[in-house]
Specification:
The chain is of the alpha/beta class and 464 residues long. The chain has 16 helices and eleven strands. Helix 2 (58-68) links the parallel strand 2 (50-55) and strand 3. The radius of gyration is 22 Å and the shape is globular. The protein starts with 18 loop residues before the first strand and ends in a 15-residue tail after the last helix. Bound molecules: guanosine-5'-triphosphate and magnesium ion.
Length: 464
């Protein structure tokens, strides 16, 4: 069996988690690849039992292999084109269905049989990953749950597009509604964890101002005088021609990926045994799915300066929670997320990561959650000198104001390509592989599912 092995992963003290990672498409593969590389560099014990990166684009597979040192047997090129599906998510969906056998054979060679959990990493804006993900989940659920009667859990880590990637907003809406609908038939993701490129970029720009300007200046070879200028580099018009230019997008991606990696590490680590670490209550990955609503936005606050001897702890914890929700979420949840469930993992030294603080944390969370929302705690104590204190919050079904923007972008795009002329309507088939009608109904689905995000006049005129 192929295993990802961190430097010391084979030693007696570490045990790989029962989770198999699949990266699909360019974004999904890059995130898994760079996550594995980072873990290797930091000599972290293996958080995954096996992994596979798959794509319909040969060049992208080659790139990810050499960039992150991925062995050939952990990658797979499938589908007919070898050059990706160019955002046509229906092609992404069908490609997985047509190649199901070769995908599953290779997964078997990599040891996926005994695993109970799968994490699928993908963007929600492209074609290969966005379209292929629902098809992989259907196949996994069919294989394990329907044929073998064995319960598995499947998590999707889905990346929402940057601002100004209007045509991708449609893909995101199609994918999220597809995943949620499939869940009603037990064939969908158990959890869809949303990370938003636009929010991650905003966080990076705010927190690492000077570095960000230097980096972008170097990469893009333009003179950036200030932060505001970076924001105007993202086109705000919905004209397709103005979609984010490739070089700028690549530079943005390099900026946000380390942030994505951090949250993946924070989510996977409590379930892995390590010496010098104590987790209570004992937590495995499946617990997230059991305790949370199906769509989750994480927030990660790292290196918190909690000092029990310096002033009121309830106050410090309140400040910590406020900051985590408002400034550290991976998709902007605004000031009143009204989450319907919360999972938190407080990691740090013994005198900080302790259950006695649970009641204060619960109180501090109360203004960000719906009445009656379940709160599940987890404490991770590290017995090494001066471990950092980190807080991971997983917010179940929070309000996500940026989804309104995504709905608006998608609606405007649909309106732009509408009219009696069949030439105009052919745009949908050409660029998405589907009809205008199917997309309109995905938007309607989305509006209904997330209707509480919308206020009157919010979205552009209703479409029929
Ligand atoms: N955070 C992050 N976003 C990425 C990365 N690579 C691509 N994206 C975003 O993902 C979206 C494009 O999806 P891709 O993953 O490139 O598409 P794909 O699944 O390969 O599908 P096709 O290229 O259409 O075959 C855009 O919104 C990109 O900005 C990455 O490494 N990290
Ligand atoms: Mg691609």
């Amino acid at each position: 069996m192929q295993r990802f092995t961190g430097q010391n992963a084979e030693s007696e003290e570490t045990r790989a988690a029962e989770v198999f990672a699949i990266g699909i498409g360019e974004c999904g593969s890059s995130i898994v690849g760079s996550y594995l590389k980072t873990s290797r560099d930091k000599r972290l014990p293996s958080r995954v039992r096996g992994y596979m990166l798959i794509n319909t684009d040969r060049a992208d597979i080659t790139k990810v292999r050499s960039k992150y040192g991925i062995p050939k047997e952990n990658t797979l090129l499938y589908g007919a084109s070898e050059i990706g599906v160019g955002g046509r998510f229906i092609d992404g969906y069908n490609s997985v269905r047509e190649s199901k056998d070769i995908i599953f054979n290779q997964l078997a060679d990599l040891g996926f049989e005994g695993v109970s959990g799968f994490c699928i990493f993908t963007s929600l804006g492209g074609g290969t990953g966005c379209g292929g993900t629902p098809a992989i989940i259907e196949a996994l659920k069919q294989r394990f749950q329907e044929e073998e009667g064995r319960r598995i859990f499947v998590y999707v880590i889905g990346v929402l597009p940057f601002e100004g990637q209007s045509s991708e907003a449609l893909n995101s809406i199609w994918a999220v509604s597809k995943l949620l609908r499939a869940q009603l038939q037990e064939r969908g993701a158990d959890l869809t964890i949303l990370l938003s490129n636009r929010t991650m970029l905003k966080r990076i720009i705010q927190s690492r101002k000077a570095d960000t300007v230097d980096y972008l200046q170097r990469e893009l070879d333009v003179d950036i005088a200030n932060i505001d200028q970076i924001e105007t580099m993202v086109p705000s018009t919905l004209d397709e021609a103005a979609d984010l230019d490739v070089r700028t997008e690549q530079a943005f991606v390099e900026l946000v990926n380390p942030l994505a990696i951090e949250v993946v590490e924070a989510m996977l680590s409590p379930g892995v045994y390590e010496p010098n670490k104590d987790v209570f209550p004992t937590t495995d990955l499946a617990d997230y799915a059991r305790k949370l609503d199906p769509v989750v936005v994480p927030a990660l606050y790292k290196d918190i300066g909690l000092i029990p001897d310096a002033g009121s702890m309830p106050k410090q914890l309140m400040t910590m929670i406020d900051y985590a929700v408002k400034e550290c979420s991976y998709a902007d949840v605004g000031e009143e997320p009204n989450a319907e469930s919360v999972y938190y993992v407080l990691t740090g030294p013994k005198h900080v990561a302790k259950a006695e603080y649970g009641m204060h944390i619960k109180y501090a969370l109360s203004k960000f959650i719906a009445p009656g929302a379940a709160i599940t705690p987890c404490y991770v104590q590290h017995f090494v000198e001066d471990p950092p204190t980190d807080l991971l919050l997983l917010l179940g079904l929070p309000k996500i104001p940026e989804l309104t923007k995504i709905i608006n972008e998608a609606t405007q795009l649909v309106n732009l390509h509408s009219g009696p002329s069949p030439l105009k309507q052919s745009w949908f088939m050409r660029s998405k592989g589907t009809t205008r009608k199917e997309l309109v109904s995905a938007i309607a689905d989305f509006r209904e599912l997330f209707s509480y995000y919308m206020t009157p006049g919010d979205a552009s005129a209703p479409i029929e």
